[in-house]
Structures are given as structure tokens and as C-alpha cells.
């Protein structure tokens, strides 16, 4: 009896210590996430104010050469805001509409800077955008002012997002941005086709059940087999139907989105303390490739990688089976931890918005006749990219170098295989 009593007491103490340790780690992670979200939100608010200012500056000038700097800033700020907002657990409807608006605003500024849009057209569009951004800045301030005061943290964020009644502030913002997008940047016929892909209306597969999505989630991420999982469905007026999974497993907090049609992984974001990097880029690349194959994305190839202190960010692109060409518009981004290669982030939206590419003639191409003397071609391959009409065109993807004035530049060009038009020309740094 004494031994049993001793064992019972020992087990109770051990469980108490374990529970306290787990609670402390969860609290530490919550504080870390709260700090990260606060920083991202503050940056986004500052960028929104600066974005409005830069749009107004563009309208001072008559020609694109004078407006090149503010147009470049509009493109940069819209891109930076998308990066910040993508890492915040915001209302999905608002996030989708706002990301779409920022993308269109940035693309418009880029096209205007290259003379691809008539002046009167971009003047009108950006004039509307300046007025709407002014109104939106005020609405954004009201919606975000009390987000992180009074101890609000990630748990409260997720609770608000998954409540039965949507937060009216975010619903109003989402509707406002949608109205702005429709009035500021009306779609052309080719852009209507592009929008259908963005809305995922082209997926031919049948809807899957909530239970099937949970099984798929646990098959893809066996490490989270014992995690607490909460599944919610997208709102009825969402751009496309999807399942949103929030999960917690010890010190890990994360969420994942799956399409309702076919149950495909759209995105993943996991937050956990980072350990010391021990795995090489090649090992992590191999692990990421196996993960994508298991997720049903077997027709992609590795394209490039970037690193920071604790993570590798890897990019993969789809290969068209008919031509063997890379389709850069159909990409997947993967974030992996350096300490053990764990997949902590996935973005497969571009891949699921699959392009309907078409074969086209590949006329003979002689680099010696196309380039000036002294240009050295290092690699050639086939790849698809969009032209100004947003039509995907098959191109020769060429990496070349040329020495000018004692400096050697590296160029990345995409040349239409049928017309010979240079669709892209970048100097790599």
C-alpha cells in the first residue's frame, strides 16, 4: 500500500511538473506570436499610410519618366504589405479581397512605369485609388486600434475568426475593398479569365467532407497526429470554398487551408521556437520535394532557395508535360526549419490556380545572331510566362553574361519561341 501511495504521489508530482512546463512553453510561444503579430500589424499600418502618399505623388506628373520613382514605390509597398498581411491571421474574406487589391495596384503601377498603359487610363485608375485609399486608411485604423490591447493574443485572434457571427468591422472592410477593386481596376476580358483561376472555379473535382480533410491533414503531417484540431468552413460569400484548420501540439501553433473541391492543401503556417540549424540546404530540399510529392504535387521541380537565420525558403514550379517547359505562374513556396527540416510553411495557391497553357511553334533560335558579340550564353531551357495581354507564351529562358566597361552583368531573358519578342529581360544581382 505504501509503495502504491508513493507511486501515485510521484506520478502526480511528475504530471504537475510536466503540465507546468508545457503551460510555460505555450505561454512563451503565445507572447512570441503576439509580439510578431503586433510588429507585422504596425508595419502594415505604416505601409498603408506611405502607400497612399506615393499614389498621390504619382498624380503630380504628366509622364511616366518623372513618375518612375513613386510608381516604383507603389509596386514595392504593395508587395511588402502583402507579405506582412499574409503572415497575420486576419479575416479570410477581407484578406483575400485586400491581397487582390494590392496585387492589382502593384501590377498597375509596374505596367504604367513600363509604358504598357496609356497615361489617361492609369491617371484615372490611380486617382480613384488615391481617394479610396484615404477612406480605407481611416476604416483600417478603426478596425485595428484595439486588436492587441488588454492582453489580446493569438487565442483571441483565432476565436474571433472562427466565431459563428463574423466580425462586422472586417466584413465591412472586405466589402469596401471589393468595391474599390471593381471601380478602380475594371477587368478586361483576358483578366476575367485570369480571375476565374484566382477564384478556383476551374477545379473539376468533387467536394470532400470535413472528416476527409482532417484525415488528409494528419496523413500529410503525421507529427501532428495527437494535436488538438479545430476545423471551420469558409463563409458563403468567400471567393472560393475551403476548409480552415487550426491546430495546437505542445509548443506548436498553426493553421492550414484545404480546398473544398478535391481537398488540396492551399497553405500552411506553423509557429514554434526555432532551434540551431544543423541540416544542409540539399537535405532540406530533398525533404521538401518528398513532402510535395506526398501532397499530390509530383509534377514540380526545384527552382531556387533563399535562407535566413533559422529557415530555408524554397520555390518549386510546375513542369508542363506536353512541352517539358517550366510554368512559373504555377509555383509552390515551402518554408522549412534548419534545425530538423520540418515543413513550417506552404503556399500552393499559384499551383492550384493552374494555367491552361497551349503548345506553340518553336522556331530556330541562334544566340550568335540574336545577341551582340561578347555575349556568353550559359543555359537555355523552355518556360512559360505571361505577355502584356496576360496570355501565357512559350519562351526560350536564357541565362547570359556580358562584360561592359569592366563589369560583368548576368541577364535572365525570356524570348517568345514563335515571335522572337523579348517578354522579360532582368539583370541578376
Automatic annotation (TrEMBL):
<feature type="domain" description="Sporulation protein YpeB N-terminal">
    <location>
        <begin position="26"/>
        <end position="117"/>
    </location>
</feature>
<dbReference type="InterPro" id="IPR014239">
    <property type="entry name" value="YpeB_PepSY1-2"/>
</dbReference>
<keyword id="KW-0732">Signal</keyword>
<dbReference type="Pfam" id="PF14620">
    <property type="entry name" value="YPEB_PepSY1-2"/>
</dbReference>
<dbReference type="Pfam" id="PF20769">
    <property type="entry name" value="YPEB_N"/>
</dbReference>
<feature type="domain" description="Sporulation protein YpeB PepSY1 and PepSY2">
    <location>
        <begin position="170"/>
        <end position="356"/>
    </location>
</feature>
<protein>
    <submittedName>
        <fullName>Spore germination protein</fullName>
    </submittedName>
</protein>
<dbReference type="InterPro" id="IPR048402">
    <property type="entry name" value="YpeB_N"/>
</dbReference>
<feature type="signal peptide">
    <location>
        <begin position="1"/>
        <end position="19"/>
    </location>
</feature>
Amino acid at each position: 500500500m505504501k509503495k502504491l501511495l508513493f507511486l501515485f504521489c510521484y506520478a502526480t508530482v511528475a504530471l504537475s511538473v510536466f503540465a507546468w512546463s508545457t503551460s510555460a512553453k505555450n505561454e512563451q510561444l503565445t507572447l512570441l506570436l503576439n509580439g510578431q503579430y503586433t510588429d507585422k500589424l504596425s508595419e502594415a499600418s505604416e505601409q498603408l499610410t506611405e502607400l497612399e502618399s506615393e499614389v498621390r505623388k504619382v498624380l503630380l506628373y504628366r509622364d511616366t519618366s518623372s513618375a518612375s520613382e513613386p510608381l516604383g514605390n507603389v509596386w514595392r509597398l504593395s508587395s511588402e504589405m502583402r507579405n506582412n498581411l499574409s503572415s497575420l491571421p486576419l479575416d479570410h474574406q477581407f484578406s483575400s479581397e485586400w491581397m487582390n487589391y494590392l496585387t492589382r495596384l502593384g501590377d498597375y503601377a509596374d505596367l504604367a512605369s513600363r509604358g504598357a498603359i496609356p497615361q489617361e487610363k492609369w491617371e484615372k485608375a490611380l486617382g480613384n485609388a488615391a481617394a479610396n485609399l484615404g477612406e480605407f486608411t481611416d476604416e483600417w485604423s478603426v478596425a485595428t486600434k484595439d486588436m492587441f490591447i488588454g492582453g489580446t493574443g493569438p487565442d483571441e485572434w483565432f476565436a474571433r475568426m472562427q466565431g459563428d457571427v463574423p466580425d462586422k468591422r472586417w466584413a465591412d472592410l472586405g466589402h469596401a475593398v471589393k468595391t474599390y477593386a471593381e471601380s478602380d481596376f475594371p477587368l478586361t476580358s483576358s483578366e476575367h479569365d485570369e480571375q476565374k483561376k484566382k477564384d478556383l472555379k476551374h477545379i473539376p473535382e468533387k467536394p470532400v467532407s470535413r472528416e476527409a480533410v482532417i484525415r488528409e491533414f494528419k496523413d500529410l503531417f503525421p507529427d501532428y497526429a495527437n494535436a488538438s484540431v479545430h476545423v471551420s468552413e469558409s463563409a458563403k460569400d468567400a471567393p472560393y470554398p475551403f476548409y480552415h484548420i487550426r491546430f495546437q501540439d505542445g509548443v506548436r501553433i498553426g493553421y492550414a487551408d484545404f480546398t473544398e473541391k478535391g481537398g488540396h492543401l492551399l497553405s500552411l503556417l506553423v509557429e514554434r521556437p526555432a532551434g540551431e540549424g544543423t541540416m544542409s540546404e540539399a537535405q532540406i530540399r530533398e525533404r521538401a520535394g518528398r513532402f510535395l510529392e506526398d501532397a499530390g504535387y509530383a509534377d514540380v521541380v526545384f527552382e531556387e532557395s533563399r535562407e535566413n537565420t533559422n529557415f530555408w525558403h524554397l520555390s518549386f514550379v510546375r513542369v508542363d508535360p506536353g512541352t517539358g517547359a517550366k510554368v512559373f505562374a504555377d509555383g509552390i513556396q515551402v518554408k522549412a526549419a534548419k534545425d530538423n527540416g520540418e515543413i513550417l510553411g506552404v503556399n500552393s495557391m499559384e499551383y492550384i490556380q493552374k494555367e491552361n497553357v497551349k503548345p506553340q511553334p518553336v522556331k530556330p533560335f541562334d544566340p550568335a545572331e540574336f545577341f551582340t558579340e561578347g555575349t556568353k550564353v550559359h543555359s537555355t531551357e523552355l518556360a512559360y510566362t505571361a505577355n502584356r495581354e496576360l496570355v501565357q507564351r512559350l519562351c526560350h529562358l536564357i541565362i547570359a553574361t556580358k562584360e561592359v566597361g569592366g563589369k560583368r552583368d548576368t541577364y535572365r531573358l525570356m524570348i517568345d519561341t514563335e515571335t522572337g519578342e523579348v517578354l522579360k529581360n532582368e539583370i541578376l544581382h
